[in-house]
TrEMBL record:
Organism field: SAR86 cluster bacterium
Keywords: Signal
Segments for region (Disordered): 327-346
Domain of life: Bacteria
Domain SnoaL-like as annotated: residue spans: 73-174, 223-321
Protein name, per record: SnoaL-like domain-containing protein
Amino acid sequence: MTIYKRSLQGMVVLLAALTAVGCSQEEASMPDQASNDMAVDMATDMTASIDMAAEEHGVMTAQEQANLERAEEWWRTVLMGGRLDQAEEYMTDRYIQHNPDVPTGREGFMQFFGAFAQPGPIPEDFPPTDVKFAKGDYVVFVWERQSEDPETGESYDYSFFDVLRMVDGRVDEHWDSVFRATPPPGAPIMPVAAGVGPRPVAPSNTAAEQAVEDLVNIEMKDILQYQNVDLAMQVMAEDYIQHNPNVPDGRDGFIDFFSRFANPQPIQDEWLDEPELVITHGDIALYIMTRYSEDPIRDNEVYKWNWFDMFRVENGMIQEHWDGATRDNNVPPSVEPPAGFVSFSN
């Protein structure tokens, strides 16, 4: 089953979600009322159709449970225990790395972490997570981390994401919520071989999971991309739990915040910014989005990274949201990749 911890102090949805994707306000037109009325009707029907019975979804298969346990063992042994000599046992040779600061490949991983990793005791317990589950070949870890507010100095919580893809009991691919940061003055600039893998394939859903995903698509696509904030009343719970530390809590807070700058557009079937991968397990739907930004290290170069949004559905309504936002406001602007940029190997 999905393992998660509720936080009543959580916050939701990144401010940049409406400006990083889709049309500019100058390019956007007013919504077509007929298409948006249809979207409202569909949202109403969808929330009524979701069966949240635990016996129908949310339970990991034996193979998924084995993948989760194997991923945790790799994490404890290689990452926490510093046992890089055991990396071959847990990682494929081609290990595809999507963290833009770490070289791809198992050898690249070992060279990077070998610069500072020291062998030590292997922890018996896996560190606490906010959410963790396995679905198909994928293993998802969502961590609650703390940082210091740059204005007040107070501590606050934010979320960090790690997603692994397992092949025959070994880690074959890794995504996380890291973008490339500008190095301190005088720091050496190390070359990083970017990981380019096949376009990821979403695992199959049960009927109940597909209903969850279809519901969350209304927030991700129709509300955040086509900017029809009024649909929030149809699909979001009144006590909507938010884990983005920049936006007010609750559905009313969400509506008030985004209504101030939303420019509604006619809702279409197509995504303005299509997810790279959606993993839906039980009442949880995780979206991995593709981002391209200017390289802060190498002039006139663009690199690829990933943004994460995750939602929990309860009683037919979207109840909770996580993303990787912090209060540093340091997320790099999105740019168009140059012609010929290779994002996937297929």
